[in-house]
Amino acid sequence: MAREHTLQKVVNILVYAFLITATVLSFSGKKNLADVFTSFETYFDPAPWVFTVWTVIYFLLGGFIIYQWFDQAHESALHGVGWHFVISAILNTLWFSLLLESEFTANNWWDRLFLHAPFSLWHGWSVFIAVVTSFVAFTDVEHQVDHDGNSTILPPDVLHIVLFYIGIVFLSLTAIFYVEYKGQKGDVTSAWVIAFGLWAIFVQQPFATTHWGALAAAIITTLWPAKPYVLKALGRSTGGENAPLLG
C-alpha cells in the first residue's frame, strides 16, 4: 500500500473522530440537536425523532472507516470517496454521493452498506436539514396569549402556508430527482431519507393546512423510489436499470 493511501485512510479516521468529538462536545451538558431545533418553533418543524438519522449516518460512517482497510474496498474508498470525505466533514457542504455511484458502482452489499449508504444518507439529510434550517432562520410562529398567560400557536397565515408548500414541493422534487437521475440509476437512499423527514413534518404539524400537505408529499416520496421495483415485478420495462437500494 502506497504511503499516500495509508495517509488518506488515517486522515479519514482522524476526521471521523473529529466529527464524533465535535458533536459530543457541542451538546455536552446542553440540549441535544432535536431540542435545539424544536426550541425555534416554525410551521415546518419535523418530529424530534427524525434526528435519529444522524445516529445512522455516524454508525455507517464508522463502518466505512473500518471497511476502507479491506482490499475489496480499496479502489472505491481511495478513488471514489478519496479526499472528499475529509472536505465534506469539515465543510459539510460538498456532496458527492451521485458521483460515487456513477463512477464506482457497488460490487457487493458491503460496498452498498459502508461506502454508498452513509454518503447517500448524508446527502439527502443535508438537503432536508438545509430546508428546515432555512425556516428556523427566516420564519417564526404566531402565538396568542390568554388571560391566564397560556400561549397557543396560531394557525399559519397565507405567507407561511405558501412558504411551507414551496419547501414541501422542493423536497418532493428533489427526492424524485434522486430516483430519476441518469435513467433511474439514481439514489433511492437519499430519496427515502427525505421521505422520512416529510413523515416527521406530517406528524409534528397540527394544522390541516400543512398537516395533510406533508402527508401527501410523504406518501409520494415514499412510493416513488419503489416505482422501478414495482414495474419490474409487473414485468414492465423501467427504461433503464433499477435504482440501487442503498446509494
UniProtKB/TrEMBL annotation:
Keyword terms of this UniProt record: Membrane, Transmembrane, Transmembrane helix
Keyword match Cell membrane: no
Membrane-crossing residue ranges in chain numbering: 6-28, 49-70, 82-101, 113-138, 158-179
Top-rank taxon: Eukaryota
PANTHER family linked to this entry: SI:CH211-161H7.5-RELATED, XK-RELATED PROTEIN
Full protein name: Tryptophan-rich sensory protein
Organism annotation: Absidia glauca
